[in-house]
Amino acid sequence: MDSALVIGGTRFIGRHLVEELLEHSYDVTILNRGTRENPFADDDRVDRVEGDRTNDSALEAAAATVDPDAVFDCVAYHPKDVRAATGIFADCEAYVYVSSGAAYGREEIPKREGETPLEPCTAEQATDDSMETYGNRKAEGDRAVFAAAEQGVNATSVRPCVVYGPHDYTERLDWWIDRVNRFDRVVVPGDGTNVWHRAYVEDVASALRIVAERGEAGEAYNVGDRRLVTLGEMVELIADEFETDIEIVHAGTRELEAGGIELDDFPLYRGYPHVLSTAKLAALGWESTPLEEAMARSVAAHLESDRDGSERGPDREAEERVLGILDTF
User: Fold this and answer.
1) Residue 171 contacts by C-beta under 8 Å, 6 or more apart in sequence?
2) Do domains 3-164+197-223 and 172-196+227-273+292-327 have the same CATH topology?
3) Which family, according to the similarity comment (predicted)?
4) Rounded to whole angstroms, how far apart are CA atoms 207 and 212?
5) Helices (DSSP H) in the chain: which residue ranges?
6) Burial 180-192 (b: 16+ CB within 10 A, else e)
7) Is 212 within 8 Å of 267 (Cβ atoms)?
């Protein structure tokens, strides 16, 4: 494959995917509405087609104009959009849908492709825009991919867990990096051993390319760091990058009440472990970035940005009240 169309391509996963494809000598075109800054505006290696991916006519025009070998659908949030895209790009060598680990409908450790059932999706959920139905809609998008493959389309799905790294607009990791950077004492919810599987964004980008090149039609592939770390270990990784000593202060439900905080208010906290098996993707030759290296790049990007994650978690004043209670014990 020589040419690729990235639907999206300017914000987070799509932006890293474009860079990954360029590094592997693809001719790249991005399709988006142009409502966000285009980081490739001055890069003559990247062409751009303006269009709304929810408009089938825009996709048809891109298919005719670009005639890509591979299509990467980074911003398909409703199953009807996946069904349309798999039809419009049916003759391409590969169509890769960016799904999500949230598509899984049962708590298992780990969640495995083809074994752990997916979320159901009603007609009402399929057209909803709320986060409550995000997993349902992604699951139905997966089923659209499987149905297309049965009709001969080389369609595949990639399911990332929580993605982090440079240009992460969610700022979930930024909140923790900011805490470690600014304070000697960092409040960690619970005992710090909870696990919410994470995926470094450059590894998600390489997974998308590898699945397009080597994946099997009708298959889904999980992607996440090959080495799992707890929330507490993640905070320690950040501290190691700053070469600083911090005190991790654990706080349970009762202690957090002093600050009006709940466990789920902390970014990247999850009560039940969320773990995806990545063996199927690794069998294609994919590898993940060492955690220390991934964190170093994430911290460097954080320091170069104006992101602090302040809207993602508890404010420091509330945490200070919790620390005050703990200090009296």
Assistant:
1) 267, 307, 308, 309, 311, 312
2) no
3) Belongs to the NAD(P)-dependent epimerase/dehydratase family.
4) 8
5) 13-23, 56-66, 79-88, 123-126, 134-150, 172-182, 201-214, 231-242, 253-256, 279-282, 291-304, 316-327
6) bbeeeebbbbbeb
7) no
Q: How far is CA 295 from CA 33, 99, 130, 298, 308, in A?
A: 32, 24, 31, 5, 16
- Reported as a single tens digit per residue, the pLDDT across 90-119 is 999 999 999 999 999 999 999 999 999 999
Tell me the C-alpha distance between 126 and 129, whole Å.
Answer: 9
Nearest Cα neighbor of 256 from 206, 191, 300 is 191
d(CA 134, CA 177): 27
For residue 324, the cross-strand partners are none
Phi, psi of 74 (to 5 degrees): -90, -15
Q: What is the CATH number of domain 172-196+227-273+292-327?
A: 3.90.25
Question: For 240-252, how does the pLDDT look when each residue is reduced to its tens digit (9 = 90+)?
Answer: 999 999 999 999 9
Q: What is the pTM of this model?
A: 0.97
Average pLDDT value for residue range 203-222: 98
